[in-house]
Amino acid sequence: MKPGAPGRIYWGPLKGFFGLTMFNCKDSIDRLLEYLDGEVPAEVKQHLEEHLDGCAPCEEFLRQYRETAPLCRKALLRSKMPKEVAERLTSFLHESLRKG
Q1: Does any domain span residue 75?
Q2: DSSP 12
Q3: If you placed Cys at 21, which of 13, 44, 55, 61 could pair as Cys (CB 3.0 to 4.6 Å)?
Q4: Of residues 78 and 19, more confidently modeled
Q5: Are 78 and 71 in contact (CB under 8 A)?
């Protein structure tokens, strides 16, 4: 979703020392789903990646976050859950993540 789109709050980068733009950990985590979905503007992506490259806790969070979806998919495929329930659960989880 584009910045300023209805229903979406745009969290822009912060202005730091000497007018430099920077993201903190909260900014980075708040924008993670949009980043992974390719829905952040180029400038936001650049600043987010700069933060992620220099922040070990956020790098670890991103690594674990990326590993979670395949594990959930695998668990859903192996379960005896009815297909309709699995689809509804997946939809609910995606929507919950998008809403924050």
Answers
A1: yes
A2: P
A3: 13
A4: 78
A5: no
Q: Which residue range forms the structural domain that includes residue 30?
A: 14-99
Task: Give, as one character, the DSSP assignment of residue 21.
Answer: E
For CA atoms 46, 52, 58, 61, give the dihedral sign: positive
Query: What was the pLDDT predicted at 10?
Result: 35
Query: 66 to each of 46, 59, 61, 63, how far by Cα in Å?
Result: 19, 11, 9, 5
**pLDDT, the chain, mean:** 75
Place of tokens 């993201």: 23
Task: Name which residue leads in pLDDT, 16 or 80.
Answer: 80
Domain assignment present for residue 3? The answer is: no
